[in-house]
Specification:
The chain has about 525 residues and is α/β, with parallel strands linked by helices. The protein has 23 helices and 14 strands. The strands form four sheets. It has a five-stranded mixed β-sheet, sandwiched between helices. It has a four-stranded mixed β-sheet with strand order 8-7-6-9, sandwiched between helices. Strand 4, helix 3 (about 105-115) and strand 5 (about 120-125) form a beta-alpha-beta unit. It is globular and about 80 Å long.
Amino acid sequence: MPRRKQAQPPSTQPDLLSALHIGAGSVSLMIAEQHADGTIHPVDFLEKPAPLARDIFRLGYVHPSTIEQIVHIIRDYQQSLRELGLDPHQITRAVTTNILSESLNHETVMNRVRIACGLRLTTIDDGEMTRLIYLKTRRRLRHLPSLREHNTLVVHVGPGNTRALLFQDGLITRYTSYRMGTHRTREAVEGSHADGTAMLRVIREHVSGNLAQIRFDFSDITLNALILIGYEIQSVAIPLTRRQAQCPVKRFRQFTIETSTLSEVESVKRFQLDYQTAEALLPALEINLAIAETLAQPEVHIPSTEYEQGLLHDLLLSRDLTGNFSEEVLRSARILAERYQSDPRHGAHVGALCERFFTELADLHQLSAHDALLLQVAAILHEVGTYISPRAHHKHSEYIILNSEIFGLDRLDVTMVALIARYHRHSGPKHDHPAYAALTTDDRIRICKLAAILRVADALERTHHQRVSQIEIRREPNKLRLRLPSIADAAVERLAMASKGDLFEQVFGLTVVIDEDG
């Protein structure tokens, strides 16, 4: 008789993960252990400077010598991975700063790294950046529970852009971004040849337009706390805050003035910085200070933790965010819908019907939880176009969504939502629709599946009176039969399904049939 193998107990050894980031002024790598409970603990961290942002904002492209410097750094990191027994070509997350997309030769950089190092890089876009800011802020709110109360504004001054997230009672209620950053500003004011406090005035004048916009955007809010995060500002957090939870703006101003009198070499020595960070330090200080003063804040909170290590840690968590994060995304969608006076009850009911169909037909569509989230957002927003005009409002919905920011969604996600919303009525996806044609085949298939579900759900909510509260779903070889208990006359829904069920039949091969009660 064959010997039965004894079952082996599950391994308790943590998985080793890795994250690589080509940032504005450095290339960094983190190796971390992921334990069974999902927590991640760093094992090793490596960082070397590379003048990516300086090249982009000074030259408009990444200089070939910088590209080769980045390649050399990554190859060194890959050797470290080999020594740990890890596949150097299977880094868990390999990303670049979003300012790389502004470089004229950004594809050259991506291709060179792919050919020389065997790595496929992705760019951190606005959606992922907001997720990373959310993760960092959530830790800050947990460590300082008092910040959960009332109105807390989190400002991230990055190399090219500044983002602001408003938390009210611990929940995100507003997200804005501005074309104002540390390295972008540094290169813009470099030609002034000013120094000392004169340079501070030049920086303040250069960003004055964005400061006025920030003042306007938050003029209706009484802020109770301001949190400042970013690579440069956190690099000097300890000497600036003197290890205190809060930093008075008066001290912040004095620190900035004193730093303006230092040369870059002196800043490197005093604050233990690399030269790339030292170059952008003064713009970082003055921009953050200007925001605090513009918003009339007496003090600020600056995390003293290492920015880059925290970013790499959060990169390993960002894509798997669920639970509260999904609620934040949906809340952002509801706020956008409210701005364009879309009926919230109709959007919520269509969303509930979509959720029922998505769950019930999981084996048929084989889509992910993230796709389910995009479908919910599309359900909330599918009629925002009526704000412009009821006529062809599906096209107006697409336009509004494409030109809006939804917290936590990247540009592909927003495009997906816009197209799903567009196809909730009239014709389905066509290859002569530019936004749809620009997607990959896989993403176009996702659009078709999700739009098909949305059209069926919207047909059942044709009256906008939430008549359909219960559905019994039964699948037959060529039909999807829907029984609507308690609705004696489903003529309206049946008529709507006749025009909206076509895409579902084309995609899934099932004709949607509505059976009345009894």
